[in-house]
Amino acid sequence: MHFWTAGVGKDSICFWGIAWFVYAVQAYRKRWWQGLLALFFVYMARPHMGQALIAGAAISILFGSEIRKEYKIVLGILALFGSIYLSATTLSFLKLEEFSLEELGSLASKTAGLLASGHSGIDVASYSIPMRIFTFMFRPIFFDAHNVMAILSSFENALYLYLSFFIYRNWSPEALRDMPVFLKTGIIVFIPTSLAFANSLGNLGAIMRMKNMTMIYFLLFCFFLIAHNKKQRYLRAVDRQRFFQRRQAIIEQKQALSDHD
Predict the structure, then answer these.
(1) Tell me, what DSSP letter sits at residue 147?
(2) Is residue 33 classed exposed, middle or buried when 0-12, 13-18 and 19+ CB atoms within 10 A define those classes?
């Protein structure tokens, strides 16, 4: 995708593994074994991202309309047992005793404090929640770029900010309903992980790395909404054209009958 996903490291492995996983979810009956392999690589690199993948896939499957009810039950049970089985390793990796709001909040504060140093450090603990989310999603932006990499990232973040306005213009319940399974999974993974990182990362350099594991699904979501909106406008235009054509045909038929009389 760009600099952070081109190197050899955990970020690249996670980006590749998440993309492979959501690809497998789209045709889970044929590619279930690919999903397990992808989950293995992601979990080995970052256990918490593996947990997020399981949860995202389970939610998108359970609430999706594309999957039969019996498959939903089986896959939901498998996801539940998988999360429980892997939770011990995830807790050990994060150095937590339990998944509680208090423990997670303490970890976020500690991580933010450790990262708030250096040229790109920020005091995220003093920010409001909307500002933390904005910082994670759209910074560094031009006013706080301190080197060439930050300037290049500012162009990328400006594009994210510009595209985010299309969500408001093109969002609709029908669009969410019609989203493909892979994109539902990607977005469901993107939202909670972004909220978690937004509250724990106090360094713009770390933010640049971490958000690129799932930011691609935000972009795909924006493009999908734009394409879906254009498709719906086209279909409405075709329906109007057909309506006027039928009306004109009826008018001409009535006129022909009246002339015949």
Answers:
(1) S
(2) exposed
Determine the Cα–Cα distance for residues 203 and 136; give it in Å rounded to an integer: 10
Q: For the chain, give me the number of helices (H) and strands (E)?
A: 12, 0
The token duo for 65 is 């309309």
Q: List, for residues 139-157, the tens digit of each pLDDT value.
A: 888 887 777 888 888 898 8
Relative orientation angle of helices 47-63 and 181-198, to the nearest 10 degrees: 140
**Tens of pLDDT along 100-113?**
545 555 555 555 55
Output the pTM of the full model: 0.75
Phi, psi of 203, rounded to the nearest 5 degrees: -145, 125
Listing DSSP states for 191-246 in one string gives HHHHHHHHTT--BHHHHHHHGGGTHHHHHHHHHHHHHHHHHHHHHHHHHHHHHHHH
**Helix segments in 46-95, DSSP class H:** 47-63, 69-94
